[in-house]
Write a structure and sequence with these properties.
With 462 residues, this protein is α/β, with parallel strands linked by helices. The chain is built from 13 helices and 15 strands. Helix 3 links the parallel strand 2 and strand 3. Helix 5 packs parallel to helix 6 and helix 6 packs antiparallel against helix 12. The structure holds nicotinamide-adenine-dinucleotide. The site of nicotinamide-adenine-dinucleotide (NAD) has 26 residues, from helix 2, strand 2 and helix 4.
Length: 462
């Protein structure tokens, strides 16, 4: 199977997106003029998943010049919702209108929050990614715009569902942003244009590094049922540890670097060949490896290497580079922002060989992604990042699947694979069971390369 869109149409889409970024940067500094389609200037926001990023995204949305207003909040944990409520109401008192009866708790809370929106308002989906397709589907049925955090799927079946839902949302004219905020970075946008114009020649290699200390959850002791009576909420709280909830630390953290390399290459890879293991993790109660090395191959045969590691006292690097036939480019140097993007005549990061250096200071891409989404809503322009977000999420899954299974995995094989980690994620209840059950020692199945075909783990006795 080919990727869901042809290369040429993807190129056109990306070229337009890049042009859009340039014109929107002009828009971003001024008051948005257009009247909101539902009859007032106000764009109401509902927040689903009131944790760190959800609260941050809501704050970004309330910091816009457009008349945004937070009116509803939903979470499965009351303490998370209350902490977010207090933080946002203090920071944005003029834009905060969440009344006591607009705070919803539970696995169906998202429906109640979305039900408070009018068509053309926006729901923020910032739960762990397992719930993305469930909540996106409901938002589409209610005709509201969506901002959803990355990754937007955790396995191939949920990725295929997101691609299909993206088409349904576009057919309804809904505007959908996906939290790969680096795509909205203006300096990276200029780098993309320069690369497409041949400044460093044809791209022949990508390199990305997410080398850092331990991330996610690193418990050595199993869940204590007295302190954590709900296995399901324990897994949700520690979602980076569980593949069903997040796609694991690999999907959650590496997707940004994978996506920015694919952006510059203007394509998504068709194969992954990866290694990895749990050298440093010992008895950790989670499903992650602590190191991953992925060779991605694009359809023109060129490669992209991703190195991911979570270990103490090792070299730290959080950066992405591309090399062309005439030189190289820095896409990001130390995290998401500022990118400090640059191009060079040769393949060394030598001050003498600099061709171009992105203008500093760079605006915050977490604000820019909201400016772009809301500008599209106000101007009623087509706006969907779903296909691109699903593809980035899926090729991330492809790399992870290759490392966990110990097999080379093509995009076709990935898309044909039926392992859905949590097929009943839309039916979970606060007092119901978790999608993954611990064994008698309180441990969960971990990947074992070579043991289970393309399955990333198997549950004993299942
Ligand atoms: N774009 C970025 O740079 C960036 C940065 C951080 C996190 N993220 C993404 O944001 C998402 C959330 O991450 P986080 O760090 O905020 O996690 P978090 O644990 O701080 O927040 C998640 C919240 O969702 C709630 N929740 C879980 N399941 C729910 C459900 N079914 N319905 C309603 N609420 C539910 C949790 O109780 C919690 O309050 C993840 O997908 C993550 O990858 C993106």
């Amino acid at each position: 199977m080919d990727h869901p869109t042809s290369l040429s149409s993807r190129r056109q889409f990306l070229a337009k997106a890049s042009q859009g970024a340039a014109s929107l940067s002009v828009l971003s500094g001024i008051t948005l003029p257009h009247v909101h389609a539902a009859g007032s200037d106000q764009i109401n926001i509902a927040l689903v998943g009131c944790g760190g990023r959800g609260t941050g995204a809501a704050s970004n949305s309330l910091g816009l010049k457009a008349q945004t207003r937070l009116i509803a909040m939903a979470d499965v944990m009351e303490n998370r919702l209350e902490a977010s409520f207090n933080g946002l109401s203090n920071k944005h008192p003029d834009r905060f209108s969440v009344s006591a009866d607009a705070k919803f708790i539970g696995f169906d809370a998202y429906k109640k929050a979305i039900d408070m929106l009018r068509p053309n308002d926006v729901v923020i989906l910032a739960t762990p990614p397992a719930f993305r397709w469930v909540q996106f589907q409901y938002a589409i049925s209610k005709g509201v715009n969506v901002f959803m955090e990355k990754p937007i799927c955790v396995d191939a079946p949920s990725g295929k569902r997101m691609l299909e839902l993206g088409k349904q949302a576009a057919a309804k004219g809904l505007k959908v942003g996906v939290g790969l905020m680096c795509r909205h970075c203006r300096v990276r946008g200029e780098l993309f244009d320069r690369i497409q114009q041949g400044e460093i020649g044809d791209i022949i290699l990508g390199r990305a590094y997410r080398l850092q200390g331990p991330v996610g959850t690193c418990f050595t002791k199993p869940r204590d049922p007295k302190a954590e009576p709900s296995e399901l909420l324990y897994q949700i709280k520690n979602f980076h540890s569980f593949l069903w909830a997040s796609g694991g630390a690999f999907s959650d953290f590496n997707i940004h670097n994978i996506d920015e390399i694919c952006w510059m290459k203007n394509d998504f890879p068709i194969e992954a060949k990866a290694t990895g293991g749990r050298t440093d993790r010992g008895d950790y109660v989670d499903q992650n490896f602590d190191h991953y090395s992925v060779e991605y191959t694009f359809r023109d045969g060129t490669k992209f290497w991703l190195e991911g590691r979570n270990a103490m006292k090792t070299h730290n690097e959080f950066a992405s580079y591309v090399h062309g036939s005439k030189g190289m480019a820095i896409i990001s140097t130390a995290g998401h922002f500022p990118s400090k993007a640059m191009t060079f005549k040769g393949h060394n990061k030598s001050a003498k060989e600099i061709i171009w250096r992105g203008k500093q200071p760079e605006p915050n891409p977490y604000d820019l992604e909201w400016q772009d989404l809301v500008a599209a809503i106000v101007d009623n322009k087509p706006y969907s990042e779903v296909e691109r977000g699903a593809m980035a999420s899926l090729v991330t899954v492809m790399g992870r699947m290759s490392a966990h299974s110990g097999q080379a995995v093509t995009f076709d094989q990935l898309m044909a694979h039926d392992h859905e980690f949590a097929p009943n994620v839309d039916k979970l209840t606060l007092d119901g069971p978790a999608p993954l059950i611990a064994d008698a020692d309180g441990k969960y199945p971990t990947p074992y390369p070579g043991a289970n075909g393309l399955y990333e783990y198997v549950v004993k006795g299942a």
